[in-house]
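ok so I'm stuck.
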Amino acid sequence: MLIAGAGRSDITPPVGIAHAGWGAATHQRAEGVDMPFYATALYVTDGELEIAIVDLDVGILTNQDDSEIRTKIANISGIKPEHIRLSATHTHSGPVNRQSWLDEGMELIGPYWDSLPAKAAEAVSSAKWAAKPADVGVGEGSCSINVNRRPSLSDGTLFTGRNWDGFVDREVGVVAINNKQGDPIATILNYACHPTILGPANKLLSPDYPGTARKVVEQHVGGICLFLQGAAGNCGPTHGFIGEVAVAERLGTRLGLEAAKVRLEIDPIPRTERLVEVVPSGADLGMYEDDPAGEPDDNLRIVNTNVQLPVGQFPSIDDAQADFDQAVALLNATRQNGSEAEIKEAVKDAKRSSFVLGNATRTADGPMSMPVQAMRIGPAALVAIPVEPFAEIGVAVKNSSPAGQTLFGGYSNGYMGYMPMADNFEEGGYEVVTTPMAAGAAEETISACSDAVQALWR
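replied:
not stuck anymore, here's the structure
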C-alpha cells in the first residue's frame, strides 16, 4: 500500500533582490511581487522505500544549491539524499543565482538562496506528516500555449522566437494521488514550455505561467499541485518576452484548466459497471453502480544511474574568468553614463561571457557524468535529468516507456546546461552556442533514460 502526503512553504524573494536575468534588461532589482513563490513537496512511501519530489519556483538549481537543499531535507526527514528529486520550474522572473554580472541587489542573493534548504525541508516535513494511505492514477491532455522557439531569418540565422513548423511537445501529463476516500492529496502536472512569457521589461517577481497553472488546478480539483517542467530546451510560450503579467496569467489558466479537466476524469481504482435495477418512471431509469474491479497499482521504485556525455572545446577556467571579469567591469562602467542601447549591449556581453565561464568549469575534467533519476509511483514513471533537454528527447523517452503515463523533466537535481539533438549542432543557435555538450549527448541520454524506465518495470 502506498502512503502519500503533500506540503508547501513560501519562498517568495524579497523586493529589491537582484532580478534581471535577461541580457536585454536594463533594471537590476525586482520592484514588486506578482504572485507568491513556493516550494511544493510530495512524499510517498510503501513502508520501506521513501521518496520526495520538490517543485521549486526558481530559475535553475546550481549543483551547490541542489546539494545543500538535498542534504537539509535528508537530515530533517530521514529520506535518503538519492531518493529526493529537486525540480526548478525555471521561471525567468525570479532572483539570479549566486554568481552574476549584476551588482545592485546582490546583497540579498546569498541570504535568499541560503534560506531555501530549511524552507524546502519544511515543505517535505509537512508532506510526510500529512501522509495517508493513497491510490495513484494517470492521465494526459494537450495544450497549445507552447511553440518551438528556434525560427530563422532569411539568411539562415537562428534566433529565439516562434517556429510554428518546428518540433514541439504539447502533451499535458497528469498524475493523480487520492486518499482512500477518493479525495485529492496531490496532482502532478508536467508540461514543456520555457516560463519566459515575462521578459526583459518585467520588473516583478513572478513564477510566470506555472504559478497560475498550479493555482487553477488547486481551485478546481483540491489538494496541492506540483509543476514539473518538461523537455523545454527548444519550446517557448506562444506569447513571450513581454512585461504584462496578465498574459502569463491567461496562458497559465489555459494550461491549468486542461490539467484540471484531465485530473477530474482520473479514477485510480479500476472499476466495472453493474446494473442494480431499472426504476419505473416516465422513462424506465437504469440505476448503476461502479464496483472495484481490481487493486490499484501500488508499486514504488527508484533507479539512479549516470551517463557519460561528450563535451565541446572551451578556454581554460582562468582565461574564461578573466574574460568574465573584464565584461562585468565594462558593464559597470557603462551603467554610469552609457545609453540604454549601450547598457543592453554590455549586459549581453557579460551574460555570454558567464556562459563560457560556466562551461569551462563544467568541462575542465573532460566528459561530464550526468545523473539520471527515474521513479515509479504506481502506474506513473517520472524521469529527471539536470539539463535543458530538447523536446525530442522527452518524446523519445515517453514513447519507449511501458508506464501508463511518463512524465519527463529537465531542470532537476542540479544543472549542466542545454542539451540539443545532434542535428541541431549543424544549425547553430543560442542553445548550441551556450551548451557545454557536444553532438551525441542527447542520443546517449535517450538510451540511458529509456533503460532506467524499463528497469522500473522489471
